[in-house]
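Notes from hallway chat w/ T.B., transcribed later so I don't forget. T.B. wanted the structure written out for a chain they're using in a teaching module, and asked if we could keep both sequence and C-alpha cells in one place. Agreed to drop them here.
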Amino acid sequence: MTTFESCVRQAAQSLKVDLGGGVEPLAALDYRTEQRVKTAAWKTFVSELRIGNARVDALAEAPRPRGYRTTSRRRLGVWDGKVLLTHGDGTPSREPSTLEPERHGQIYTRLEALFAKQHISVVEAVSHVILRGTYDEHVLIVNVRELDARIVRTVRKVCDTLCEEFPAIEHVWIYHDPKGSRYYLDIERPATGVGSKKLRGAAAWKQDVGAMTYQVGVFSFSQINLAMLPNLVRTVADHAQAQPEDVLFDLYSGYGLFGAAMGGSVRHVVTCDADASTVDNARYNVRRSGGHVSAVQQIFTEPQDVGRLGRKLDKSVPRQLVDAPRLMVLDPPRSATPPGMIRELARMLEPRRVVEIFCGPEEIPRSLREWRAAGYEPERITPLDLFPGTMGLEVVVTLMPANEDEVRRDVPAPRRTPRGSGGPRRR
C-alpha cells in the first residue's frame, strides 16, 4: 500500500513544489500551495483504498495553519560543552518552529539560559521540557530521569523565575520517567515511586471547544491543534448522527472531547481510557454537558486486554438500557487498535454505527480489513488538515453493518439478534 507521505512527495514533484526537510517539510510553503499538494496527495491515496461506494469529502482546511500547536517539547542536553534545548530532530530550539506559537519559542530560549546556570548533574537528570494547554494558559512539564529533593529544589527555582517573566505559565509539574524514554509522557514507566510532583497551579487546565468548556488533565492526551478542534468535533458528530435513544461508546476517550460534545444528544455515554485521572475528567466533562455517563478505566494495548475490555464495556451499560441501540466513536493512538480488538468490539457491542478517527492515513487499510471481517463497510470518509506543515492528516471514517451477502463467507458475521422497538436483545 502506498503511504500518504509518498503521495505527498509525488504530488509536490508533479506540481513543481519544493519541500523542506525534517518533520515539517511543508511549513515553509504558503498555505494555499500546501493545500494544493495535500489535496492531490489525498486523491491518490484514497483511490487505492477499497472503499466501495463510500462518500469521500474534500480536505477540511485548518483555520490557523501556522502557530497552532498547543503542545510542544524540547530535549535538554549538553553538546560541545553547551547546555542546549533541541527539537526532536536535534536542531537547536533557537530555530523556532513556525507551527508553534511565538511565545513557546520565547519560553524555551529563556529556559535554556536558566538551565545553563545549573549544576551539570541537574541538567543530565532532565530529559524533556514540555509546554501544553491553550494559546493563553500554559502548562510546563519538566520530565526527569531522577527525582530527589535537590532536583526538585533546582527545578522549582528555575521555573519560579520563568513564571515571573511569563505569567501565562499557570501550572508547573515534574514528571518522573527513570527510563528517559523518547516518549516524553511514557505510560509504560515503572509504577513504583513518585510519578509526578506539582510545583505550581492545578492538575488540569480549562479549554473551550465551541460552546463547551473542558477540563483537561496536565498529563492527559490532548490534540495539539486547539484551533481545529471545533471543526473536528462537528465532523465526528456529523458522521455519528447520534439519536436520542443511543448509548454512545466513546473509546480511547481521553478527557471526553467527543463524548461530552454529544452527551446531551444521546441517552447514555460510556467513556473508556487507560489513565485513571483522564477517565475522571471525561466523566466530569460529560456530566457538565448534561449527559449521563459510565466511565471505564482499561488499558488495551495487549491482545489479552481485548476480551476483558469488551466484557467491561458491555457490563457498563445501565440495566434499563441493555436493549438500546449502540453507537461507537473510536479514536485510537497512531499505533492503532491491538489485534482482535475490532472483532471483539463488533461482537460484544453490535454497534449500529461506528466512527473511527485516524491520526494517520496509513492505518486505514488494516482497520478497514478488520471491520469488513466483522461485517462492517465504510460509508463516509472525511480528511482534516489537523497537522498543517507536516505530512500528517486526521481522517474520520464512518462504518455501517454490511448487507449479509457482502460479509465474507469464511468469516463469522457479528452476532445478530432480532430488534424490537428498543434495539437488539443482549441479555
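Follow-up for T.B.: The chain has three domains: 4-48, 72-203, 225-424. Might be a good example for the class.
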